[in-house]
Each structure stands twice: as C-alpha cells, then as structure tokens.
Batch of 2 targets.
Target 1
Amino acid sequence: MENQKYLDDLRDIRQMMDRSTQFLSLSGLSGVFAGSYALIGAWFANSIIKEQLATSDYYVRYRDIENMLLIKVTAIGLAILGLSLITALICTHLKAKRNNETTWNSSSKRLLVNFLIPLVTGGFFALLLLRHEFFELIAPVTLIFYGLACINASKYTHRDVRYLGLTVVVLGLINTEFTGYGFELWSLGFGVCHIVYGAIMYFKYDRK
C-alpha cells in the first residue's frame, strides 16, 4: 500500500510539472478549421489556375501568365494563413478560459517561439526559391519546415502535434521526389492532416 501511495504521489508530481511546462489549451478545433481553410483555398487556387490557362490569349507571354498566377496563389496562401492564425487564437483563448488558464504565459511563449523558428526559416527559404524560380520545390519546402515547426513546438504542448509534424515532413519528402504532385500533397498535408489530427485532439482533450 505504501509503495502504491508513493507511486501515486510521484505521478501527481510529474503531472504538475508537465502542466507547468506545457501549454495544454491548444484547441483541436483550430486544426479542423485550418485544414478546412486549406482545402477550400486549394480548390479555389486550382480553379483560378485552370480558368487562367483556359482564357489566356495565345499571344500572352508564358512568363506573364506565370507571374499573374503566382501573385493570386500567394494571396490565397496568405489569406489561409491569416484565417488559420486568427481562428487558432480565438479557439485557444476560449479553451484556456474554460480551463481557468491564461492564454499568454511562459508555456505558450515557449511554444510560440519554438514553433516560429523553423516556420519563419522555412518561409524565407521558400521566398528565396521563389526568387530564383525553383517553383516546384516551394510546396515540399513549406511542408517540411511546417512539419519541423510542429515537431519543435510539440515539447511544450500535446504530443499529438509531434505526430502531425512527422506526417507532414514525410509528405514533404515524398513531394521533393515527386514534384509533379505538389498541389495534391500540399492539400493532403495542410488540409486533410490538419482535419484528422485536429479532430483527434478535439475528442481526446477538448471534450473532457
């Protein structure tokens, strides 16, 4: 009996330490919304590309068409990112409030910093690829660095985020080999994976 009580005390101490170093108010619903935004944005971008190619004048230079599409697709990507961030902040704030926690604390700061370092690095790398016209590598690079950002941040939140990151990294590596499937793999990584892992996290943690 005494040994069991000792083990229970150790388990309670461990849980208290985990709660003090991890931000556990990350909302699974925000992942579902982010994935939905990504799929809608991907469909919209694909429609724009098809329409642009179908209606462009034969004598319009290929480079001009490419530049127009690039601007439109980039705008869609930025809109998806903005919507996802706003939704994540709202959902996480509501969950933290429900759990009597503060959204902005030392744990959430560590989570954000560790998430942003690989993400911002990947963003600059993608811009350099864009500048040097390595267009086929932009999708895999964004997948890989986003996955690394999730893995790096997972030390400070639910472990499920690590598995999301690993899945997205693998998809990015596959996309590096099969560059012709960038659109499909990008949609799978940022869309479907977010919805699946977001739903898992919602049912595991948010509905308790």
Target 2
Amino acid sequence: MKAMINKKHQHGIALVLVLWATTLLTVIAASFAFSMRTDTLLGQNLAAAARAQAVADAGMQRAFYEMFKPISDLQRWKGDGVPHQWEFGGAKLSISLLDVSGKIDLNSASDDLLKGLLKSVGLNDEESNILLDAIVDWRDDDDLPRPKGAEVAEYKAAGLKYRPANAPFETVNELQRVLGMTPELYASLADTLTVDSHQAGVNAAIAPRKVLLALPGANVELVDAYLLARQEALLKNSPPPPFAPAAAAVAGDDGSVYSVRAEAVSPDGTVFVREAVVKIDQGAVRKFVFFSWKEGEATLKPIVEEKVTIH
C-alpha cells in the first residue's frame, strides 16, 4: 500500500515537471517568434525608409536638372518656393526651389548692409548702431563687446538667463534672442533675412523691395524705378538691368543660391524629406557647390493632388 502511494507521488511530480517544461518551452517559442516578428518588422521599416530616401534624393536630382535649364526656357522651375508635384517609382513628391541670394545673410552681411536694413525699417542712426553691434557680437567668436554692443555682462544686466552664442546664427529665428530685438522689429526684418546664402551681398536681380531699400545709397525713387525696369525686362525675357546701389553689396560671382527641398511619400505612407542649400557655380564648367545636405522634417500634410504640368 505504501509503495503504491509512493509511486503515485512520483507520477505526480513527473507530471508537474512535464507541465513546467512544456510551459517553459512555450514561453521560449513565443519569445523567439515575437523576436523574429520584431526583427522582420524592423527590417521592413528600414527598407521602406531607404526606399523613401532614395525617392527623395531622386526628387533632388530632378530639381538640379531644372536649375540647369536656361532662363529662357519657359518650363524652367522658378526659385520662388512654390512646390512642384511629381510622381516617381509609385511615390509622390513635393519639390521646391527657393533662391535665397536675394536676401541678406545674417552671418555674412557687411556692417553697412545690416545697418542699412535696420534704418530701412524705421530705426534712427543711434538705434541702428546699437542693434547692429549687438547682432555682430552675437555671431562673432569672442567675448569682447563692440562699442555699442552686448556680450555676457550686458545680457546679465538686462536680466536675461542666456548669453550671446558667439557663433554664427543657425536660423533667422535666433535673431529674436539678440539684446534689443523686439517682436515688432523682428517681424519687420524676418522676411528679408537668411542664413543660407553665405554671401556678403545680395542678388539685386531677384531681391525684394525691402532688401533693395537696405542697400547703401538706395532710396524709394531709385528702388521703385528699378523694380519697374526689372519687371519690364522679365516680360521681354531679357536680363534684368543693373542696380547701381547694389554695386557695393553684390552677391559675389554670378550665380544664385537655392534652398532645395524634396518630400517623398511612399505608397505605404513612409515619408522622407531631403533638404540642401546649393549654389550654381557659373564657371567655364557649370557645377554645384553644396553648403548643406541633410534630412529635413516632414510637413505632416498630405501632398496636394493638383500638379504642376511637368514635361
């Protein structure tokens, strides 16, 4: 009788061990299956991202092709920032070109050009000098304040918790942190500025009225007469006339700087954005000079189905 009980007890223990072993194997198998599924999904996501990136880069090449077309080509894309819709490899792209050489570069502009801009939006000579020195002190690489500028001590005295960057502006928005800059003044200046042209002057052939007014020696009469002549030349498909005040603040050698953006949306919804700042070198052999090439941020907006006709 005792032997029979011991035998049943042993069978019970064996059954428990079998159940534990089965449970353990089930957990291991499930964990392995989950890991394989995760790896598969990760691989699929990486492949989808790579395809979207390749399509976005193809969009950039299409933009470069358009930039090389002669100005006389009526189908040539303009550097006005208007998105062009294109389909490639089953994906949809939104591609834009923005010529920034008609704006004033915060990091490269001369003192005279920046001061002219400040005076053109209503600051007097003294106010312009103070803000000009603060702007230059922000972008230079030392802690020595200009005569009317601002470095660490001045920001601390103003009760600000930050100090000047002592480095080039990374974005135009950063100008709002400069001591003495007001929201109203920034709103007046922002659309005339860039950090992407990398040029000390401006391209008068495409510069807006506010930028032309900032050029040393410019006035309302000269600027309005030039804009009229420039528009007439455009309608005749002729080169724009020279603008005398721009002679002291030209944008460098012949060529324009573009901010190029291509946003690709794959059929599976994967999005990739490529952005670049590039200049066309108008030498004996035309070529591109790249200032930046990076991944951009998606707009998170659906691409408009209305398309610009592309031949």
